[in-house]
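Retro notes - structure team

What went well: the batch runner handled both jobs without manual restarts.
What didn't: labels got mixed up in the shared folder, which is why I'm recording both outputs here explicitly, each with its sequence directly above its tokens.

Job 1
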Amino acid sequence: MELLVDPQSDPEDQALRHEQISLAFLGALQHLTPAQRAVLLLREVLEWKASEVAEWLDLSVPTVNSALQRARQTLHQRSKENGSETPVAQPRPQLQNLLDRYMTLWQQADVPGLVALLRENAWLTMPPLPAWVQGRTDIATLLRLRVFTPGKQWRLRPSCANGCPAFGLYRREVGEDGYQPSSLWVLGVEGEQIGSIVVFLDVTSFTAFGLPSTIEGEAGGQAA
């Protein structure tokens, strides 16, 4: 899977053009088997090749293709039963307000505030790890146990990836002078909330997204 960046385009304009994952899609995921869900997300959302999914999940390519076909059939059936719903793109002021609040709450290590910006059934994944977390409660637990731990300080810098608003996340440990790249968080905005978060752990391409390679230490930083 490749991260796509258009340095000539405004992040908000790209986000407004991006076709968001529908609520119907998110709800239908619950009706898939774990294998079907994993294959669907890796193939359709993260755009992995069938061979890459097969290698990662230790399956054959025909098995991956079969699971994807069954997952698509289930989604199609659920769509006919419930009707599809396409989220309305956020007007520019509302989108910017949402992103500003997200950035402020993150740097304050405010987990309740952050998860309040999420849809109830929002999901988070971290390619290339086979991690998939859904729901405000589980995402809050992940943030508390894996991100906002004692001794760490964070800084965000806005960017855009795959047509969505994104933030470069930088971490500073106790005793370090500056903030080092940690991961790239790509947000799927639906209506007035965040419906999905894809966390890319490969930080070698930060500069391609207009992000600095490091951030100098700043006074008054919030420690998680």
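Job 2
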Amino acid sequence: MRPGTLYVVATPIGNLADLSERAREVLGAADHILAEDTRRARVLLSHIGVATRPVSLHAHNEAARVALARRWLRAGDDVAVISDAGTPLLSDPGERLVGAVIEMGGEVVPIPGPSAILAGLAVSGLPCVPFTFTGFPPRKAGRRARALERIIDATETTVLFESPSRLVGLLDELAARMRESGSEGAGSGMSAAPRAVRRVAVCREMTKVHEEVFRGSAAECAAHYREHPPRGEVTVVVEG
């Protein structure tokens, strides 16, 4: 029996019209669908008329789901994996799954499409090549400090995610480490010497009704979002 195929399917980051025709076909034909959030997945699947019930795949159950997916694939079933939004595996679960399928000699097929990383980079106005994607900054102080220092020291553009509730804090920290005037953290002793002010683009709610891209220094962006508290998904792009 021919083993099944694992499809890594990109889904819209906001506007459901951005789902590709190929993604619709794959999701409609898949025997099983693994999804980071089954509730959000059901909204998408219902929108395109797919009745397959999604099965959860997240950080706390990935090991068990890998074993289940391997059984499905060995039985000849095709499996699709989707994230909450955008391209799976990028700050989302699925790496162990893809690695396990490759290890068993299975076929892994990408179904490309929306990505908040590339969308934010494209509209940032900053150099697109080379760039580094770092995901969400660590929360623990030591790891966070080292991660932010790497962003400040980088010669390439950096793309990262942050939650709305922590966005202003992140921008203040970046501004303070760059020693920008006007930042809440300026003068905190985080950095011994001034560094060149970097341009920053904050991309919020991309492809949705309240889409916004705010560009400026880290301090200017922090001041804007301190006055206008952000909501929704946030992608931050920092000049190298």
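One thing worth noting from job 2: Strands lie at 5-9, 32-35, 55-56, 79-82, 107-111, 131-135, 157-161, 199-204, 212-217, 234-238.
We'll revisit the folder naming next retro.
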